[in-house]
Specification:
Structural class of chain B: mainly beta
Helix content of chain A: under 10%
Mean pLDDT of chain A: 91
Distance between the termini of chain B: 41 Å
Oligomer: heterodimer
Distance between the termini of chain A: 37 Å
Low-confidence stretches of chain B: none
Largest sheet of chain B: 6 strands, mixed
Number of helices of chain A: 0
Order of helices and strands of chain A: EEEEEEEEEEE
Strand content of chain A: over 45%
Radius of gyration of chain A: 13 Å
Number of strands of chain A: 11
Shape of chain B: globular
Order of helices and strands of chain B: EEEEEEEEEEEE
Chain lengths: 115, 112
């Protein structure tokens, strides 16, 4: 079965550094998402992306965050200048189409540790 | 805004015990409700869902019934296995939208 793949599985970075988290969604999917889970907290929606633009974003997704689909397969989340509180598990997800008639397919996540 | 509250974990059970993980929600309108499961080292996988009141979602022996009157969607299984050890997330989405609102997750540990 096709999978959403995320790399790396664990990233350690220093505060203030830029980090790029990478995702390869399922090939025929059209909608892409980033969620994150701070340890012990809820899984939170960050942003959704369709047709090469952001379709929805949460209040967490401020100017420090950006997303890009640089080619036909990758979907990236960039954090421009990481803060300690950005430490979390970041999940990428994709879906074929909206409205919700099939489940979101999630990747295994990237654990980001900011020191 | 929408929110999901689920019971704190970890829930520790012996194999073949009964499982209930409570989930309640707050939402405007009539959301769709979901249970996702995360096995160790893996991503979130949809376990079951229900899209309207009184619907029962079921999969792999797990069940949950959409109770509008109590705004609940409790996860149940009659006899758990060691392989059910995972983190279980209750979630909702507004009708017609795929963006999910999750609960904090409940870890289930099943011992032989």
């Amino acid at each position: 079965e096709p999978e959403v793949t995320q790399t790396p599985s664990h990233q350690v970075t220093q505060m203030g550094q830029e980090v790029i988290l990478r995702c390869v969604p399922i090939s025929n999917h059209l909608y892409f998402y980033w969620y994150r889970q701070i340890l012990g907290q809820k899984v939170e929606f960050l942003v959704s992306f369709y047709n090469n633009e952001i379709s929805e974003k949460s209040e967490i997704f401020d100017d420090q965050f950006s997303v890009e689909r640089p080619d036909g397969s990758n979907f990236t989340l960039k954090i421009r200048s990481t803060k300690l509180e950005d430490s979390a598990m970041y999940f990428c997800a994709s879906i074929w189409r909206e409205p919700y008639n099939s489940p979101l397919h999630f990747g295994n996540g990237t654990r980001l540790t900011v020191t | 805004g929408d929110s999901v509250t689920q019971m704190e974990g970890p829930v520790t059970l012996s194999e073949e015990a009964c499982l209930t993980i409570n989930c309640t929600y707050t939402a405007t309108g009539y959301p769709s409700l979901f249970w996702y499961v995360q096995y160790p080292g893996e991503g979130l996988q949809l376990l079951l869902k229900a899209t309207k009141a009184d619907d029962k979602g079921s999969n792999k022996g797990f069940e949950a019934t959409y109770r509008k009157e109590t705004t609940s969607f409790h996860l149940e299984k009659g006899s758990v296995q060691v392989s059910d050890s995972a983190v279980y997330f209750c979630a909702l989405s507004d009708p017609g939208y795929s963006t999910l609102t999750f609960g904090k997750g409940t870890m289930l540990l099943v011992s032989p």
